[in-house]
Amino acid sequence: MATQPARSDAPNPAIKRLSLYLRQLESLLKDDVATVSSRTLAQRLDLTDAQVRKDLAYFGQFGKPGVGYHVEPLILNLRGILGTDRIRPTILVGVGNLGRALATYQGFQPKGFELVALFDTHPKKVGKKIGGLVVQSLGELEETVAAHQIRLAILTLPADAAQDVADRLVEVGIRAILNFTPLRLNVPKTVAARSVDLAVELEQLNFTLSE
Amino acid sequence: MATQPARSDAPNPAIKRLSLYLRQLESLLKDDVATVSSRTLAQRLDLTDAQVRKDLAYFGQFGKPGVGYHVEPLILNLRGILGTDRIRPTILVGVGNLGRALATYQGFQPKGFELVALFDTHPKKVGKKIGGLVVQSLGELEETVAAHQIRLAILTLPADAAQDVADRLVEVGIRAILNFTPLRLNVPKTVAARSVDLAVELEQLNFTLSE
DNA sequence: ACGTGTGAAGTCGTTCACAGCG
DNA sequence: CGCTGTGAACGACTTCACACGT
Question: How far apart (Å, rounded) are the C-alpha atoms in residues B94 and B155?
C-alpha cells in the first residue's frame, strides 16, 4: 500500500519554501532547463539537497532517481498545491501611498491574483481611478465581495482603522487577509491573516547590524 | 557567578518577537500602564506566557516576581537591544511605485530609521523630489554613502537590476539590505540581507485558502 | 554511477512545571 | 499570594545516511 502524502502534515516552513522552489523552477524553465537535481535547486536557494527532497516528498513523488526532477511538470504540480493555478479575485482596502503602490504593482497577476476592487474610507479618494480600477466607498463592500465571490483581501490602511475593517471583512465572508498594518488583527481562526510589518523587518536588520 | 545572558544564543524567532513586544509595550505606555505581566503581554500577541518570559530572559532579568515587567524601562532596554535607540541613516534605491510609497512612509522615522537619500537608474526620475528628498543618480552612490556613514539600504527596484545594485552596495560598504525584489540576493555573509516577497506572502495565504 | 525517497538521529525551539523572590 | 526565571520534557524541523530505482 503506497503511503499517500498528506499535505496537511507538512511542516509550515516547508510550505513556505514551496514558493521559493516554484520561483526557481520558473526561472530554470525560462532558461530551457528540462531537468534539475535537488542539489542544484538547493544551491540556488542556500539550502541543503536533503531539505529540498524532503520538502517535495511531503507532497508527492516528483523526482526520478538518477535523473532529478522534470522542471515543467513539477511547476504545474507546485502551482496546483499552492493554488496559484486558479485566478483569485482580490480586493485592496486603503489607497494611501502603499495601497496605491500595490494597486499598480504588476507582480500579482502573473501569480494568480487579480485585484478586482479598491476601497477607501476617505470620501476624497472615492471615485478616483487607480491602476484601472475606481476606488469605491466601504459601504459597497458587501455587494462587491458577494458579486465577485472574493475571499482574499489586502489591508493597506491606517492602523487605527484596521481592526474595524477586518471585522467587516470577516463578516462579509473574506477568508484570508494580508495585513500591512503594524497591528495584530483579531480574527476568528477560520480566517487566515498574515502580516507584513516593515518596521519589524527593519528592526531585525538593525539588530544584526549591532552584532 | 551570575550567568550573563549572551544575546547571541537567543533563537532567531525570539529576536523577531522582541519587536512585537516592543510595539505592545509602547502601546501600553501610551495608555499609562506602568507594569505588565508576561501573561497579559502574551495574550495581546497570541503567545504563551512562558514564551514571553523565556524570550525576555535571553537578554536580561527585566521582570520582578509578583509584579511583572515595568513598561517604561523595558521599552528602553528593548530599544537598546534592537538598536533602535540610535538613528540609522538609510538609503532607498529604486523609486518606482513601491519605492515612492516607502519614501513617503511615515512609519520609519519613529522607529529610528531616517531616509537620507533616494537613488534611481532612470534618468527621467533623477532630480525629482519625493518626500523631501531629491532622487540622485546611482553614480553618486559612493560619495553619499561615505558622507553619511550609511550602512542600511532598502531595495525597491526591478528584479533584473537588483543583483547589480546589491553588488555595488556591498562594495560601497553597506552592511544590511532590505530587499523587496523577488530574488535571492547573493551577498557575502558579512552583509545581512532580508527579503520581503509579496508574491510569496500571497501564495502562502492562497495555500491555506485551499485547506 | 547518479540521485531520489525516507527512516533514524540530531538539532533547535517551545512548553511545562516549579523553586524562589517580592 | 502572584509572577518571574529556568532546568527538564516535549515537540518540530533539519540533517544524515543509505536502500533502492534508473
Answer: 6
- Cα–Cα dist A38/A137, whole Å: 49
A41 touches chain B (CB under 8 A): no
- Does residue A4 lie within 7 Å of nucleic acid chain C, judged by its CB? no
Query: CA B53 to CA B132: how far, in whole Å?
Result: 42
Mean pLDDT (10-residue bins), chain B, 211 residues: 57 97 97 98 97 98 97 97 94 94 87 94 96 96 95 95 96 95 91 92 91 69
Handedness of CA A21, A26, A32, A34 (dihedral sign): positive
**Does nucleic acid strand C have an atom less than 7 angstroms from the CB of A62?**
yes
**Alpha-carbon distance A54 to A49, whole Å?**
9
Query: How many C-alpha atoms does A94 have within 13 Å on its Cβ side?
Result: 23
Does pTM surpass 0.85?
A: yes
B16: left (phi over 0), alpha (psi -120 to 50) or beta: alpha
B88 in Cβ contact with B28 (< 8 Å): no
3-state secondary structure of B32: coil
Say yes or no for a CB contact (<8 Å) between B209 and A151. Answer: yes
- pLDDT value for A68: 98
Are B194 and A204 in contact, with CB atoms under 8 Å apart?
yes
Helix or strand or coil: residue A52? helix
Q: Which amino acid is at B144?
A: T
- Pull the grid cell for residue A31: 532558461
Q: How far is CA A193 from CA A119, A180, B80, in A?
A: 19, 11, 30
> Position of cell 538518477?
A66
Contact B193, A4 (CB under 8 A): no
Contacting residues of A for B90, CB less than 8 Å apart: 202
Q: What pLDDT was estimated at residue B7? A: 55
Distance of CA B73 to the CA centre of its chain: 22
